[in-house]
Structure formats: C-alpha cells, structure tokens
Give the backbone structure.
Amino acid sequence: MLHEARDGGVCVLRLDRPPANAIDETLLADLAAALDTARADDAVRAVVLTGTGRFFSAGFDFAAPRRDAAAEQRISALYREAHVKLLTLPKPTIAMMNGHAVAGGLVMVLACDCRFGIDGVYRVGLTEVAVGAAFPRAAFEIVRLRLPQARATELLLGAVLYPASAAVRLGIIDELVPPNVFETTVLRHATRLAGMPREAYAHAKALLVADAAAHVASESAEDAQQMLAVWSAPESRAARARQREKLGLKS
C-alpha cells in the first residue's frame, strides 16, 4: 500500500503490487493496517482507494503457490478482517477505479461508500464462479449490500467480464469520468465528504452497513469450512488450472 496525504484531510491508499495488484496475504494485511492507521488518525477525514498501473486489482493471485488447509484458513481470516474494516470504516471511503477490477478486486471497489471509474478501455466483473472460486461471506455481503438483486445475480452467476462502459448500468460505480479530470473529480468529491460532521457521517454509515457486518460476523466455522470445500472441489480445481494455463502460469 502506498499512502498519500492530500489537502482537506483526504488520504489516498494505493494498491501497489505489480503487475495486477493481485490479492494475497501481504496485500490484505497491509490494507488492514492502513485502514487501522486511517481510522486512528484524526487528521484523516476521508480515504480514497485506488490502484497502481492499468489495474485496480485483478482479484486473488493465481500465481500464488497452492495453500494447505491452515494457510487457507489464515488467508480467509485476513480477507474477512480487511474487508470488514473497509466496509465499516467510520469515515468516507471513495473508490477511484483506475483500471481493471476483477473478482475480489471489484469487491474492494464495492466495499467503498462512493465509487468512480475512469472512462477507458478495461474490464470489470465478478468471475469467481467461472474459475471455481467460492465467495467469502464478507464478499457476498458487500455485493448484496451494494447492488440490486437483479444486478447481483447477473454479476455473480453470469461470471463474465464487462467493458467499463457497462459499470454504471450494473451499479458498480456512480460515474465514469474522463481521464483528464478523473483524479481531480474524485479528490474534489472526497474533500466534500471529508468536510461533513464526522460523528453524523459515522452514525449514518454504521446504520447503513450494520446488517451486512452482522451477517459476516455470524458466519460459523461450518459456514467457513463449506466455503473452503468449494475451493477444493475437483471441478473448481480444474477450472482454476485452466485459468492458470490461460495466463501462462505453472499449475
């Protein structure tokens, strides 16, 4: 994570794991730590989350070595922790979607209060089902909170990649912004939200996300194990092997 302090109490957190800002244990731990810092720092009044390069994030890292059961449980816990912290941060959060946002990368976008995308040629989508990946409870609750059921069904079960031009229709973002004014527009919006009375904003946000956060917290050990079992199913493993081959990665 790169941290950039901007005027008006805005903190820009930039995912910086080239080439695709793919999600692994280190990225999740760094994101959680950065959110803890932003939460504790009274000088930070709003957080902008974006990516480095052509990707916001490509989702989970297909190049990572296969994890054993204990490692799967650790990354599952890290994922839940980081995403709950992002969803429930008692300060404005703004996604600055700078490029491809796929699977878990798109979930990070949806976890933010407000979402802007750069107007360009790139792809967005929730492709988990197509590659045999189960949805962590935190990811599912974020999607269900942010999207109408029809759009959530289209994205979750269709599991295809859409051009960025479809992101507004799908409810993923609030606005597509031309590249020459993209960052300026997002930072201006972040500064406006940063100027809100902090207690009032935090209270209203807590009410909005309370049900989703409670559903995540209610996940049982059996629920988590069922999610991990989907990852381990033969067809799921085969689908990810095909994806690794497509990406030119070793199985």
In short: The chain has a mean pLDDT of 94.
